[in-house]
Structures are given as C-alpha cells and as structure tokens.
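Notes continue from the previous slide.

Worked example: a multi-chain complex. Inputs as given:
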Amino acid sequence: PVDVPEGEHKLQSQYCLWYSRRGSGKQSLNFHLNLKLIGRFGSVEQYWRIYSHLVRPGELSSHSDFHLFKSGIKPMWEDDANKCGGKWIVRLRKGLSSRCWENLVLAMLGEQFMVGEEICGAVVSVRFQEDIISIWNRTASDTAVTNRIRDTFRRVLNLPQGTAIEYKAHNDSIKDKSSF
Amino acid sequence: GTKIVYERAFLMNMRNSPLAK
C-alpha cells in the first residue's frame, strides 16, 4: 500500500493511475503490454501532486487512455473484480472530456456514488472524433446498483442536455468483440 | 465502518494546499 504522510487527507481507497496507447501491428493485440502504471496514491494531496504533472485528457493524442482503478484491480475485463461487472459509457464531442473526466474522478475519490464497494474504476478514452468516458462496477446484474451509479454519473459529469449514456456488461463486450 | 467522503468543492480547494504541490 501507498504510505500516506501524517497531515494529509486519506482517501477511502487507494488508487492506481494507468496510461495506455494503442500500439501498431502485433502489439495492438496485447493490451496489457501497452498498459503503463503512472502512479499510485492514497490521499487527496497525493492525487493532486500526480494530476498537476499530467497532460489533460483533451490534450492527449488519439487512441490514448487513462485508467484510474482502485489498487489491486487491473483495468481489464479479465480481472476478478471486473469479470461479472460492466460500465456506464458516455461518448463526448471533442472539447468536453477534460472537464467531465475531472468531475468524474473527484466524485469517485470522494465516494459520492454511495454504492459500497461496487465502483472499480474509471476510464477516459481519446479517439479520433470523440472521447469516451466510462465508470466500471463489479456487478452488472444488480440493477439497483447500476441505476444508482447512472444517476450519480449523470449528475456529476454535468452533461449537455440530451446526451445519451449506455450500460454495457463486460461479458457482452467480449461476446460482440466491441472495443472500449 | 464510516466511509471517508469528500465533496467536490473541498477536493478542489485542496488542490491549492501547499502539501498538494
């Protein structure tokens, strides 16, 4: 675990921040090889210290992702915490992702979702014409939980009116081979 | 036990704390 110095504000969970960029050729098939751990943190102060050194998602090059997951959960479908889970996804036009991502991250770190241990992590994916933000939870079959996550997700992202969001169980994503 | 909960405004303020630099 990350050591939190005295005087700093502990978070409920510790987190790992990962970065990935789609490689070319053979490497693109090995998602885990492209996954790089950027940092770990357990306090509010540690989070801001990492954040202040990072490029904001809106300024990342295409096909890059940030993955912010609780310590011990790898940002992959195959992880035990994720394999029965799913994610709420929103597709955003360019220019919105930095603000939305920051809002989502602060809600997650601050435990605003109020769904026990259900939240696994969040991902922002920078693509050619749009950016995609998602929040991952453990149990795709628990509708009460996923509805609660949806309501908080919508509220904290402060999305433009009429923005569609969708839920995808990871199991279905694997079956229909849809990517992030 | 009790969860450690933080509001957005508090977290944003903490950004300017000397410990967060």
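Summary box: The two ends of chain A are 29 Å apart (CA to CA). The interface with chain B takes residues 7-12, 44-45, 48-49, 52, 103, 106-107, 109-112, 156 of chain A (CB under 8 Å).
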